[in-house]
Amino acid sequence: MHVAPVKRSKLHLQTVGLVVLLTAVSWSCSRSAQLIRARPFSEPQLQTISDLPHLHDAATLSGHFVRSVRVYRVTALRMERRPNRIDPDPVTTTVPIILSLAAETRLADLPAGSPEANAVALYLHATRYLEWATHLFGDRIDFNSQENYRDIELLITDPAIGDTQYITSPNRFLIASGSSVPVGLVAHEMGHRLFWIMEDQLAPVLAGPNDLVHCGILEYFTASFANDPFVPVGPPLLNRDVSLPVRYPEGLETIAQTADRFRRSYGTHFAEQPWHAQYAEFLSTLRGDAAKRLDGHRSGLVIAHPLWRARVRLGAAKLDALVVAALRRLPEIIFESRRRLPPTLTKNAPSKAQWFDLLAALLSVGEERSVFLEEFRRVGFDATAVAAAFPKVASENIIR
Ligand SMILES: [Zn+2]
Fold this sequence. Notes:
Helix content is 45%, strand content 10%. By secondary structure, it is α/β, with parallel strands linked by helices. It has a domain at 5-204. The strands form 2 sheets. A 4-stranded mixed sheet has the order 2-1-3-4. The protein has a two-stranded antiparallel ribbon with strand order 5-6. Helix 12 (316-340) crosses helix 14. The longest helix is centred in the C-terminal third of the chain and has 25 residues, at 316-340. It starts with a helix and ends in an 11-residue tail after the last helix. The protein binds zinc ion (ZN).
């Protein structure tokens, strides 16, 4: 079943408003020039604005995946409660910024932290991620079917508001004035678009973005694309690093724990940063089931970490391909794993893919089994039980 992107957008910002929060730390301006050139994919080295593919005109960047990037200055930001909705919406007051992008402008000369440098960086990172994902997964991925995400807004917040990139979504990025769009932030948000398609078409057994397997694989791709284990979220205690050791099940965290991380990140500065105080107030209104719910973004580190370590050992291209192959097998392997694995693992497990289903899929690909077993075991998963249920088999018996 295909769910219209607009519906997903609301879900992402409403019920997962938190989860978006659970996205990001501000990067220093000094990384700007580097960011523009990060992860070149299929394009030749870009020198000037006119080298950008599909440049539409001097003020708008427009291409086959990203139809437009428009930039606004945010002068006011507040949370607004709406009828019949549980979570409030962030509401912005904005002023358009007209970009100055003459065709002969050298990309390297765009001032770090300027609206022009950030618009170009956002355009390039988004386009490259979507091209990269299309290349990885093949022609079955059509990002242009997500019509509502082809136009992207870049909102630059005034100093009085501060850094609010944690409420970013795939078609609305927020960064603090003078800072630079981090490649990891763009990759993470584009990853949500990829995984919406995945949930609907390629691996419909994946649960939503509140799930650790879903978010863990998504974040593996974020770090792999950026070639950087650090995933910027914004609040210092909410930034993620997939290279850091983590244990299962100790590494699982709830929304309430995330709210606490947010308050501890900004609490001593609430007087000078009224927006953060307002957001903390919003978090404090989450009670009961919402607060007890698993935070998939943070909990997903127990999945992203072993995958990242396997990538370090085997190389990016190989691991990317193996994870894609495992994802393709997931819908079939999940039935097999529930039949073969011991009840101690599968009893009472939700019907959507769990860590043991993912590991079974990785093992069933038939390559580098020992690496996956070692890395999952290192985190604390009972990988031995999965290995016993999915022994190395002759190629004709591998589930394809
Ligand atoms: Zn997210």
